[in-house]
Design a protein that fits this description.
By secondary structure, this protein is an alpha/beta fold. The protein is built from eight helices and 14 strands. The protein is globular.
């Protein structure tokens, strides 16, 4: 083992641990889950931090107790740059960190951030206390500013009863110039309407709104010079849909034109190639 390898690993490291970072990351790329990649920390000192350099990481607390160390793993991952980050959480204790994780991830993840919140049924007395104090609700601040790097974001909520996931728009004038894809599933918008969201995210090419709450009013207007794909499914309380997107190629509409509704649609989409 040469001096360079001695500097990077202990003398008791095995031959695999003496390989370059790129080779070790290539090996870890075949590990099926992030959880399995994290377990490689136990192999040697050389492996302790290799998993943190993986381009794609996915974390979940489904089927785990809140004390399983998930918070520490996500915090450690957010100290490094990644291409893709997926977080799926259900316990209220972890949901308390959701917004902080999102803000950090927006500065570290260059590709896609996917955040999914599942409903949680209280089991223990402590769980019921979390539930009674309303910790099932989550508010996310839309990342904006010069430090935001993420190109695609997906927020999905499967909360039930009176619990809600809210996406809050910034009060001060701000823009998100990096975001090109946005998915919102079962989410309420706060701090502005859809027109404000589109104004903040002027580079959007793809927009998905499924079970969406908090539009500007009975008239839903979607105006974008760059939007190429629009997917709408059950948007509450609208009677008129107006779409003006000169570059729109793909349009999907579902559960908007109900049989008991008099909703009217107006479309200015000269580049449209496909409609569902």
């Amino acid at each position: 083992m040469n001096s360079k390898l001695l500097e990077r690993g202990a003398a008791d490291d095995d031959i695999i641990s003496s390989l370059t970072d790129d080779v070790l990351l290539h090996i870890l790329s075949f590990v099926p889950t992030t959880e399995d990649a994290v377990r490689t920390r136990a192999l040697s000192r050389r492996w302790r931090h290799v998993w943190l350099c993986l381009p794609a990481l996915a974390f979940s607390d489904i089927g785990k107790i809140p004390t399983s160390g998930l918070d520490e793993l996500i915090n450690a991952a957010l100290a490094h740059s990644h291409d893709t980050l997926t977080i799926r959480i259900q316990h209220p204790r972890h949901k308390l960190h959701a917004n902080a994780w999102l803000q950090q991830a927006a500065e570290r993840v260059h590709g896609n951030i996917s955040l999914r919140l599942d409903d949680y049924s209280p089991i223990t007395i402590e769980d019921r206390q979390w539930h009674w104090h309303g910790f099932g609700n989550v508010v996310l601040d839309l990342p904006c500013g010069d430090d935001t790097r993420t190109a695609a974001m997906s927020f999905r909520s499967f909360l039930q009863d009176d619990k809600m996931l809210t996406l809050k728009l910034p009060v001060a004038p701000a823009v998100n110039s990096s975001l090109t894809e946005l998915e919102l599933f079962n989410i309420r918008l706060d701090g502005g309407g859809l027109s404000d969201l589109l104004s903040l995210c002027g580079q959007l090419r793809r927009l998905l709104l499924h079970v969406f709450w908090g539009v500007d009013g009975p008239d839903l207007k979607i105006t974008s010079k760059l939007l190429e794909e629009l997917d709408l499914d059950y948007i509450d309380g609208i009677v008129r849909l107006e779409v003006s997107c000169p570059k729109l190629r793909l349009l999907r509409i579902k559960r908007l034109f109900q049989t008991d509704s008099k909703l009217v649609g107006s479309f200015c989409t000269p580049s449209l190639e496909e409609i569902h």
